[in-house]
Amino acid sequence: MRDTKESRLLLVLLVAIAFALITVDIRGGRNSPVDGARQAAATVFGPVENGLSSAVDPVGNAVSAIRDSGSRHDRLAALEKENAALKAKLGSDDRNRSRLRQLDSLLKTAGEGQYGVKGAQVIAIGSAQGFSWTITIDAGADDGIKRDMTVLNGDGLVGRVTTVGPSTSTVLLANDPDFTVGTRMEGDDELGFASGQGDRPLRVELLNGKAEVKKGERLVTFGSQADKPFVPGVPVGVVSRVDPSGGGLTRTLYVTPYVSFTKLDVVGVVVSAPKKDPRDTVLPAKSQPHPTPTVTVTVTPSAGAPATEQQQ
User: Fold this and answer.
1) 61 by DSSP, 3-state: which?
2) Residues 6 or more apart from 78 whose CB is under 8 A from it?
3) Rg, Å, the chain Cα set
């Protein structure tokens, strides 16, 4: 349509009529004279609107999902954070329970041997001194720790202190190849020297080459002069193998240590030696062997069984 004066006049007239109809419809409410026309328009255009709505709804849902995904992601992140914190707490509780068990065992061992100990925790493995089997503990000179003190835990001999700082110390472990400790056999008092072999059993040379030793016998520390570096009576290990006697001056044994050197956490440094040798009292109680029950089966012939004929 060309933009003429007549077309402009017609547009103004149509707008005026539309406003008039809207006014009449609003004032009339449910009795509006245009209600019938509105219903007819709804009948004609309703299916079209529904189709358009169905087509648009997936897009609207997607937009809504994208809008809500931020809040859902935040909730998921919060839940994951809570879960991680709970797992960390449970793990921490498990570790604390393990440390309490180790501490209880250490105190029991110290009490049985009458050792005055300073508790410490392993904070590092290895050291700058070049030892291959060492640990660093969180106790030093400020705690009364000195060089050449015995270190033990609830299971037995751990090692000896080699280097002392103000708040930390280095401990040479009993399985280090440079480690040697005097030992005594339980019961018969045969003396020897145990040396570390890394992750293999300790090697013990008994001074008596003709000593009768059996697998399963146990050893403790013999002790040193002035109780340094070793106090007496600390459990060392159990004999796992005995070399055949070759008529030499010594007898070689292989001993599985009580201590697991790869699982050290809570240890004790003996700062006060016992007044008397505890002998074998610190060794764990021997497990009693359980006899295998013997079952005897007696077969009784039934009354109806045929008798065996006697030979003439």
Assistant:
1) helix
2) none
3) 45
Question: What is the rounded distance in angstroms from the CA atom of residue 282 to the CA atom of residue 246?
Answer: 33
The span from the CA of 217 to the CA of 165, in Å, is: 38
| pTM of structure | 0.65
Distances in Å between the Cα of 218 and the Cα atoms of 72, 112, 151, 268 are 63, 17, 19, 22
List per-residue pLDDT tens for the chain, 312 residues long.
555 666 666 666 666 666 555 555 555 555 555 555 545 544 444 454 445 445 444 444 544 454 455 556 676 777 777 666 666 665 667 778 888 899 999 999 999 999 999 999 999 998 555 557 999 999 999 999 999 999 999 999 999 999 999 999 999 999 999 999 999 999 889 999 999 999 999 999 999 988 999 999 999 999 999 999 999 999 999 999 999 876 678 899 999 999 999 999 999 999 999 999 999 999 998 866 556 555 555 666 655 555 544 444
